């Protein structure tokens, strides 16, 4: 006979599990632990720290490539799904094959709210972290901002920004002890270049940040760096401890400054657009003398009910655009220039292509045109190969919103899923000699065209793919083509051992320096 007290306690616990918010959360977590523990392990985790000890961002790239090589040497099959542990009781599904990655990226499952939640104080629930109906609505409203007719107008911005970089390098060359070459820090110069570009494309903000300090530009840089550092500093996952820390205070100050400026610009621009729309007879309207930027398009976008985005929504999307369009492009461009400096044959081929295309189209020295960028095919291949070898966003974290099955393994609702793009791009079945820099992988050949669609996904894929990928590619083509037409790039002796650090965005293990040498006339 069951004791009444025992029965009451059991029923109370059952009620707690099914009715209280914490109880439902605990039930989901335990369910995730139960099923995710059934996933195969490629590497045995530590009992306490899981895989965190061997998979720190500073060593993850080497860790992944070693695991891939070890499995291949032992003849072990890669089924594309495995288990990764944060701790002994926190498991994640790690997917890294075209088939399994396609199963996730073809959905609109949201980003992991815990890890991407560190961005919320700055970018709010912009396109990067929003989900559901809000994400779908904002994605639809933002898509026209990346139409090729809009992107054409940004080409002059790319040219002028790269021109500022080249002028800075000319000055460095002039001031160098050796008149024939100079050493430049592209880990400092390239992020300032891409920030300069994105500030002008986003809100027509001309900061001159490449040559002199700018408070708003510095705030954006601080937010980009501190947000990612917080993600890999365990004690700073706590809002309280982070707020009390020196970095937390610097973050809050930068966040307040960035919001203050963007809100002021949005308010002023909205008033000008309202005045322009109210005076329909004025042929000299607000847009008649200037190019529309990202902010203009957000302010005038309407959904099917004629409702426009709120000022907060617009600020969130502008800040999201600044982060995603600045740091990721800077990473990809840095690594491309690094690989070109180490492969003079590829560098020379890119240079010859740029000279030929620009000459055929009569492009003036120091300028770029939209038509020229479309014809830089080999330069595009060099960029694509750099983004394969040094995957810009190496890991994407999603969260399952419903039960699903991948490769026969049950993934319950609430599970964390790692889309391991770095491992995908180093899969030897699809990328022979994966550590070799070889742009010919992207030649239009039958062999290359036969690769699975999701064997290469530097801009993610599916409905949540990078909305600004065409802008990024054209900006990087502009930079590479203009730089190579003026300078020869090479690696200093101490730069041959730069390693990849897989933070949210791929970072070099130390600042990358190159030797620039002016080309003979």
Structure description:
The protein has 521 residues and is α+β, with helices and mostly antiparallel strands. The protein is built from 20 helices and eleven strands. The strands form four sheets. A four-stranded mixed beta sheet has the order 1-2-7-4. It has a three-stranded antiparallel beta sheet with strand order 3-11-8. It is globular. The chain starts with a helix and ends with a strand.
Quick gist of this model?
The chain is an alpha+beta fold and 521 residues long. 51% of the residues lie in helices and 9% in strands. It has a four-stranded mixed sheet.
What's the tally of helices? 20
Category by helix and strand content: alpha+beta
Give the proportion of residues in helices: 40-55%
- Which quaternary structure do these chains form? single chain
Order of adjacent strands in the largest pleated sheet: 1-2-7-4
Question: What characterizes the major β-sheet?
Answer: 4 strands, mixed
Mean pLDDT over the residues: 87
Give the N-to-C terminal Cα separation: 99 Å
Low-confidence stretches: none
What is the strand content? 5-15%
Total beta-strand segments? 11
Q: In angstroms, what is the radius of gyration?
A: 25 Å
Shape: globular
Properties at a glance:
9% strand, alpha+beta, three-stranded antiparallel sheet, 521 residues, globular, four-stranded mixed sheet, 11 strands
SSE inventory with pairings:
Layout: H1 4-19, H2 21-36, H3 60-73, E1 81-87, E2 90-95, H4 98-105, H5 120-123, H6 132-142, H7 148-152, H8 155-175, E3 182-185, H9 186-203, H10 215-231, H11 239-244, H12 246-278, H13 294-300, H14 311-342, H15 344-360, H16 370-374, H17 377-389, E4 395-399, E5 404-406, E6 409-411, E7 416-420, H18 421-424, H19 446-449, H20 469-484, E8 487-490, E9 500-502, E10 506-508, E11 513-518
Parallel strand pairs: 2-7
Antiparallel strand pairs: 1-2, 3-11, 4-7, 5-6, 8-11, 9-10
Helix pairs in contact: 1-2, 8-9, 8-20, 9-14, 10-12, 12-13, 12-14, 13-14, 14-17, 14-20, 15-17, 15-20
């Amino acid at each position: 006979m069951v004791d009444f007290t025992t029965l009451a306690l059991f029923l109370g616990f059952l009620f707690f599990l099914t009715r209280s918010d914490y109880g439902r959360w605990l039930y989901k977590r335990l369910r995730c632990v139960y099923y995710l523990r059934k996933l195969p392990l490629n590497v045995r985790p530590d009992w306490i720290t899981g895989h965190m000890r061997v998979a720190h961002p500073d060593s993850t790239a080497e860790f992944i490539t070693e695991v891939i090589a070890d499995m291949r040497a032992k003849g072990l099959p890669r089924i594309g799904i495995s288990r990764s542990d944060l701790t002994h009781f926190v498991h994640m599904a790690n997917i890294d094959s075209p088939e399994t990655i396609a199963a996730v990226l073809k959905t609109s499952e949201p980003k992991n709210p815990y890890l991407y939640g560190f961005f919320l104080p700055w970018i709010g629930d912009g396109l990067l972290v929003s989900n559901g109906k809000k994400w779908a609505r904002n994605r639809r409203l933002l898509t026209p901002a990346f139409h090729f007719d809009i992107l054409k107008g940004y080409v002059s911005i790319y040219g002028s920004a790269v021109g500022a970089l080249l002028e800075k390098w000319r000055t460095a060359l002039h001031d160098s002890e050796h008149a024939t070459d100079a050493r430049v820090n592209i880990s400092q110069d390239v992020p300032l270049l891409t920030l300069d570009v994105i500030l002008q494309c986003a809100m027509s903000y001309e900061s001159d940040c490449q040559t002199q300090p700018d408070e708003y530009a510095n705030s954006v840089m601080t937010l980009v760096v501190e947000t990612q550092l917080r993600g890999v500093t365990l004690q700073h996952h706590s809002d309280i401890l982070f707020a009390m820390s020196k970095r937390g205070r610097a973050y809050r100050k930068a966040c307040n400054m960035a919001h203050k400026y963007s809100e002021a610009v949005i308010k002023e621009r909205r008033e000008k657009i309202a005045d322009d729309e109210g005076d329909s007879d004025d042929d000299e309207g607000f847009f008649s003398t200037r190019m529309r930027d990202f902010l203009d398009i957000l302010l005038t976008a309407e959904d099917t009910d004629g409702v426009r985005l709120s000022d907060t929504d617009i600020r969130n999307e502008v800040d999201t655009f600044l982060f995603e369009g600045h740091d990721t492009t800077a990473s990809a461009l840095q690594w491309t220039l690094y690989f070109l400096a180490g492969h003079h044959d590829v560098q020379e081929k890119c240079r010859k292509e740029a000279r030929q295309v620009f000459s055929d189209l009569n492009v003036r020295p120091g300028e770029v045109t939209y038509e020229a960028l479309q014809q830089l095919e080999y330069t595009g291949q060099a960029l694509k190969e750099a983004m394969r070898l040094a995957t810009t966003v190496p890991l994407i974290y999603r969260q399952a919103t419903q039960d699903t099955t991948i490769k026969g393994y049950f993934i319950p609702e609430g599970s964390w899923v790692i889309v391991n793009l770095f491992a995908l791009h180093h899969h030897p079945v699809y990328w022979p000699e994966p550590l070799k820099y070889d742009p010919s992988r992207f030649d239009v050949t039958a062999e290359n065209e036969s690769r699975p669609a999701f064997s290469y996904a530097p801009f993610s894929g599916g409905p949540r793919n990078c909305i600004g990928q065409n802008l990024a590619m054209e900006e990087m083509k502009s930079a590479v083509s203009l730089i190579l037409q003026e300078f020869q790039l090479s690696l200093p002796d101490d730069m041959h051992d730069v390693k990849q650090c897989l933070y949210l965005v791929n970072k070099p293990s130390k600042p990358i320096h190159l030797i620039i040498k002016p080309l003979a006339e």
